[in-house]
Every structure is written in structure tokens, then in C-alpha cells.
Design a protein that fits this description.
Structural class: alpha+beta
InterPro entries: RNaseH_sf (IPR036397)
CATH topology of the largest domain: Nucleotidyltransferase, domain 5
Distance between the termini: 53 Å
CATH superfamily of the largest domain: Ribonuclease H-like superfamily/Ribonuclease H
Oligomer: single chain
Number of helices: 13
CATH class of the largest domain: Alpha Beta
GO molecular function: nucleic acid binding
Number of domains: 2
Protein name: Tc1-like transposase DDE domain-containing protein
Length: about 375
């Protein structure tokens, strides 16, 4: 064993932890690359010439300012993200004097405080000019605390952000950029989806096909049954859209012999102009919904009904609740490509704040934790954000 160890050292090997680099899982997936190249990058590029450009001193670059179109509103991109501050998060590497003795330390990370915020190069953390109103949200995550930060919390936060922008920055064009998390991409309960649809209409005597959702009370909270489980209810799926934009109901209309019954995928596709003989000869779906790859996909010779409907434009581009909520007030939402957290500049703001936080006195109480976290966030200078 000793001889083997000597030879390993001689050959340039060392017994230590594997070197860690940046996360790259999924960066090269076909769907991720396609979204990045065909959706995200064009959306970012379309604002070129309408943004403010900052120099190293945090001042607006005069040359780019002169080139900016004066007839177009300035585009401001607000990046969103969440991070956590923990009570016992302290620096592990520092200058230690020879006389310093070991002291007892906490075994766990201690209390946690989640922070969700927006940042932009134009105004830093999103708030009113005097700082009295802020889009920042502090959240104590946990079952016995504030629960979990979900889509409803995101909607409330972005509503506050839009209120601030409407009141104090109405002459600019604002866009919100979120990461590609399921919390942000959540669709409405009745959103279009070809998943689980039957090929044929619902059989007579059976409950018509629909979407199951959690039943809520007047306060918006889930209703629980006597067995302690959440009560579910079935609702109709929302209308689809023909290529000309007109609505297409997924259920037979009033006056039809089977009014209110789900039509089935075959009928839905036939109404869209697909050959009836072709559709009737297709299987419902490939086994396990594992269809041939996109490179082998031929719409003229589809493999199954579900894949054919799945690729229809209105089924592909179903907006999230967040997108619909912001679009209703004239704001655009852009999602970062999956696994591309390095594209979000707010990550550097979190890092700068946490470095400052670790130098503060320990957060022995939750009040100390909140005070230290806020002080750390406010310590990030606007000049650094603009760099």
C-alpha cells in the first residue's frame, strides 16, 4: 500500500476532494440550447440600442447614450431571484492569530431567512427613489414558520414591483427576468395540455374528462376532508385556439346530443383540418410517450395523436400565470434558460452581500438575523452592480 501511494504521488496524483467547477448539468441538452438560442437570446438582443450602458465608474457611457434612439423608451431589465441567509453562516478562512484558542460553535446552520428581490443596473434593488417602498420580500420558510414560497407569493411580489414602477418609473419600458423554476412557470389549473387526454370522446355513463385541482375555500386556502387529505375537484380544461385565433372548445357545445362531453383528441385534430382517415388510424400515444426524437419527427407521418396535438402552437405556447398576470399590466416576462444561473447578475449581488454578512457579529436571534441580512443587502453599492 505504501509503495502504491508513493508511486501515485510520483505520477502527480494527490489524495483530496475532487476539484469542483461550475454546474453544467443540462447546459447542452437539445431543448435547453434551442430555447437559449431561439427564444432567450433574441429577446435580450431586441432591446439593444434602447438600454443604458454603464462604464466602470458607474456612470452612463456617453457614446452609447448618443446612439440610443430618443424616440424609444429606455428598456430596464429587472432580474429576480431568491437566496437564504443563515444565522450561523460565518467565514471559515480568515487570519487567525497563534494565540487564538478554539471556541464552541453551533452544530447546525441555525435559523434561516429567505430573501426574494429584483435588481437592475439602472436603479439597483427595486424600490422607490426615497427607499420607502421596496419590492424585497423576507420569508421565513418552513412548515412551522411561513410555509413555502410558492407561485401565489411570486404573484404578490411582482404586483408590488409593478405598482412601484407604475408610480415612480412610468416613462421606461420594464421587463422582469426570472429563472426557469417550476414556481415561476406554473400554469393555471385549466391550462391546455395534451397529457392524459383520451383519443375518443368520454364514454356514455361515465364522468366526462377534465382536470383535477385542489379545492379552495373563500380565503383561498385548501379544503381538507374528514380523512385529513386535500379535497380535489374536477374542472373543464380551457378552450384551445385555432390557427386564426378563434377559440376551439374541447367539449361538445350546447345543442349537441352529447353536450358538455369531452370530444377526444381525434375530434379535436380533425376540427383543425387533419385528415380524418389518418387520425383514426393513429394510436393514442407511443408507449410511455417515448416518441421518435425531434430530428425524426415528420408531421405528415405522425407517430401518435398525443404527439401531434402536443406540437400544436396553442398547446406549445401556453403562458404561465406569472406571464399572464404581468402582460395584463403591460409588462414582459422573460425566463432564463434552464441550468444557466450564471446569466443572472443578481447572483453576484448575493455573493457580495453574503461576504459582508459573514463579517458581521453572529446572528444569535432572528431579529439579529433579519437586521444583519438587510444591512448586508444594502451594503452592495450601485457602482458594483453596474459593473
Amino acid at each position: 500500500m505504501r509503495m502504491a501511494q508513493i508511486w501515485m504521488h510520483h505520477l502527480g496524483y494527490r489524495w483530496k476532494k475532487s476539484p469542483r467547477g461550475q454546474y453544467v448539468d443540462g447546459h447542452k441538452r437539445d431543448d435547453v440550447r434551442e430555447y437559449r438560442d431561439t427564444v432567450y437570446l433574441p429577446k435580450i438582443a431586441e432591446a439593444d440600442g434602447c438600454r443604458r450602458v454603464w462604464n466602470r465608474d458607474g456612470k452612463e457611457d456617453e457614446e452609447s447614450r448618443a446612439r440610443r434612439n430618443p424616440n424609444e423608451p429606455v428598456v430596464v431589465d429587472h432580474y429576480h431571484d431568491e437566496t437564504h441567509f443563515t444565522a450561523n453562516d460565518r467565514r471559515d478562512l480568515r487570519w487567525v492569530h497563534d494565540d487564538e484558542k478554539p471556541v464552541p460553535r453551533a452544530k447546525t446552520e441555525g435559523a434561516t431567512l429567505m430573501v426574494a428581490d429584483f435588481v437592475s443596473a439602472d436603479c439597483g434593488w427595486l424600490c422607490s427613489p426615497d427607499g420607502s417602498l421596496s419590492a424585497r420580500v423576507l420569508f421565513k420558510a418552513g412548515i412551522a414558520r411561513d410555509g413555502w414560497f410558492d407561485n401565489n407569493d411570486i404573484i404578490r411580489q411582482v404586483t408590488l414591483a409593478m405598482d412601484i414602477l407604475d408610480e415612480f418609473y412610468p416613462h421606461e419600458r420594464h421587463r422582469f427576468i426570472f429563472d426557469n423554476a417550476t414556481t415561476h412557470r406554473k400554469r393555471s389549473d385549466d391550462a391546455l395540455s395534451a397529457r392524459n387526454m383520451s383519443k375518443k370522446p368520454t364514454q356514455a355513463g361515465k364522468a366526462t374528462w377534465g382536470v383535477w385541482r385542489t379545492k379552495t375555500g373563500p380565503d383561498g386556502k385548501p379544503i381538507y376532508g374528514p380523512n385529513g387529505k386535500v379535497v380535489k375537484e374536477k374542472i373543464r380544461m380551457a378552450d384551445a385556439r385555432f390557427s386564426n385565433g378563434e377559440p376551439q372548445s374541447l367539449y361538445f357545445p350546447e345543442g349537441h346530443p352529447r353536450a358538455g362531453v369531452f370530444k377526444g383528441m381525434a375530434q379535436i385534430l380533425i376540427e383543425r383540418g387533419f385528415n380524418e382517415q389518418l387520425i383514426n388510424g393513429l394510436r393514442t400515444e407511443c408507449k410511455g410517450f417515448k416518441c421518435p426524437p425531434s430530428s425524426q419527427w415528420d408531421p405528415e407521418h405522425p407517430c401518435c395523436c398525443r404527439r401531434l396535438l402536443y406540437n400544436e402552437p396553442d398547446f406549445v405556447s401556453v403562458p404561465s400565470i406569472l406571464e399572464m398576470h404581468c402582460q395584463a399590466r403591460g409588462y414582459e416576462v422573460i425566463f432564463l434558460p434552464k441550468f444557466h444561473c450564471e446569466l443572472n447578475p443578481i447572483e453576484q449581488c448575493w455573493g457580495r452581500a453574503k461576504r459582508y454578512y459573514r463579517e458581521l457579529p453572529p446572528s444569535s436571534k432572528e431579529a439579529d438575523l433579519e437586521r444583519n441580512a438587510l444591512e448586508s443587502l444594502d451594503s452592495v453599492p450601485l457602482e458594483s452592480i453596474r459593473r
